[in-house]
Amino acid sequence: MTRPAAAPRPARLGGRARGLALVALLAAVFALRLQFALTLATVQRQGFGAERALWIYLGYFTILTNGLGALSLARLATGHRAGLLARDEDLTAIAASLLIVGLVYNLVLRQSWHPTGWAKVADELLHVAIPLLYLAMWWVAGCTRIPSRARLLAWMAYPVAYLVYALGRAALDGRYPYPFLDVTRLGWMRVLGNAALVGLAFLGTGAALAWLAARRPLSPALSGRGGPP
């Protein structure tokens, strides 16, 4: 028995999903502002200004991905369910990217970084709470369009572009945002191997979300079947 074809996606998002998107958006904005304030305070103690803080701040995949998620959440919180950053394919790609943020941090980086105070609050929000909130929103929003293999591969453009961006920045200032990308310490072969592992994890996460979407029970509105009033 085949899965019923989904009806055209409504242009507005349901109230429960909008509420969840708003909560996630507020958490993301707070965490991003907090992290910038912490970065600014650190560089000011070193005698630098806001320009240096912004340069460092924008070098992290965590910040860029949470910022992308916040832009998507802003559209969803206002009820939009079509267009850039609000389509099923976009939501799934952003959810996969945020899950990679959480997985890499918690499995690879957490043991080497022990923040306290507000830094720990920002860390937990950016690497745990917001990825999970976005994933919950993705599920409640009812993403059922299954991305093709070609679309999954196209999503790889984002982490690949970040790799080029991060290594290009490091060539200018010698600062690597993550230890597993440190070419001077690890060499090119290990860095490219690490990047390949992250890329495979990204593909695997995207494929897992696609698998979940394919097995998601369709609501009456999506399946075309009538339901109780």
Please describe the structure with a list of short key phrases separated by commas or semicolons.
0% strand; 10 helices; mainly alpha; 229 residues
Task: Give a brief description.
The protein is an all-alpha fold and 229 residues long. It has one domain (15-217). Helix content is 70%, strand content 0%.
Summarize model confidence as the mean pLDDT: 88
Count of DSSP H/I helices:
10
**Element order: H for helix, E for strand:** HHHHHHHHHH
Measured between the Cα atoms of the first and last residue, the distance is: 27 Å
CA radius of gyration is: 19 Å
Main sheet specs: none
Structural class designation: mainly alpha
Q: How would you describe the shape?
A: globular
Number of domains: 1
Residues in helices, as a percent range = over 70%
Low-confidence stretches: 1-7, 219-229
% residues in beta strands: under 5%
Q: How many β-strands, per DSSP?
A: 0
